[in-house]
Amino acid sequence: MMLEPHLPSGVQQKPVHPLWLRLTHWLNVLAVLVMVTSGWQIYNASPLFDFQFPRAVTLGGWLGGAIQWHFAGMWLFGLNGLFYLLMNILTGRMRKKFWPLTLRGIFTDLRAALHGKLQHNDLRHYNMVQRAAYVFVMLDGIVLVISGLVIWKSVQFPLLRVLLGGYDTARYVHFLAMASLVGFVVLHLVMVALVPKTLIAMLRGR
């Protein structure tokens, strides 16, 4: 295992995450938890595939209750996500943290990660794999919102419905976007377990 070099004390003391980012992160955790578990209950009422989610991991108890929870989570997810995107753009964080992003860089850092050689000594810097993952999940969140709008208000959003291939196709798109989000969360939790100081930084800011 490679030893991580010590950074100058001045660098170590600089904030890793601003307060607004930490707040939006934890609000998003709550929103995703509510939306996914209530969404699973809604899915069980009209499955797309030949399986259902265990009742123990669903929220709402029944279809009506799940829909109410889903709408509550929807507003939190949408408004919090919009604020997060705007703050990233207005503060310049989007450009500084997530760009440049290249396929070559992604594969190089991915290969280093698989060999246990990807360092995490400076949490203020995202490697290419992290950048790709975060950009992906932001785009996935947008797809979730758009497909969710088509499912919720299909008549009121005819253009979005047409772009997604119709109401029935929108349900599949929504499900696959949800599955992608859950996959990201699982991978994210694995990485936090491997590098616990990332959790501390998200709690304390440094």
Task: Describe the model.
This protein has 206 residues and is mostly helical. It is 70% helix and 0% strand. The protein has nine helices and no strands. The chain has helices at residues 9-12, 19-45, 63-90, 93-98, 103-114, 128-152, 158-163, 167-194, 197-204. Helix 2 packs antiparallel against helix 3. It is globular. Residues 1-12 have low confidence and may be disordered.
Strand and helix map with partners:
Elements: H1 9-12, H2 19-45, H3 63-90, H4 93-98, H5 103-114, H6 128-152, H7 158-163, H8 167-194, H9 197-204
Name some characteristics of this structure:
206 residues; mainly alpha; 9 helices; 0% strand; disordered N terminus
Give the structural class.
mainly alpha
Strand content: under 5%
Total helices: the number is 9
Distance between the termini: 24 Å
Which blocks of ≥5 consecutive residues have pLDDT under 50?
Answer: 1-12
Structure summarized in a few sentences:
By secondary structure, the protein is mostly helical.
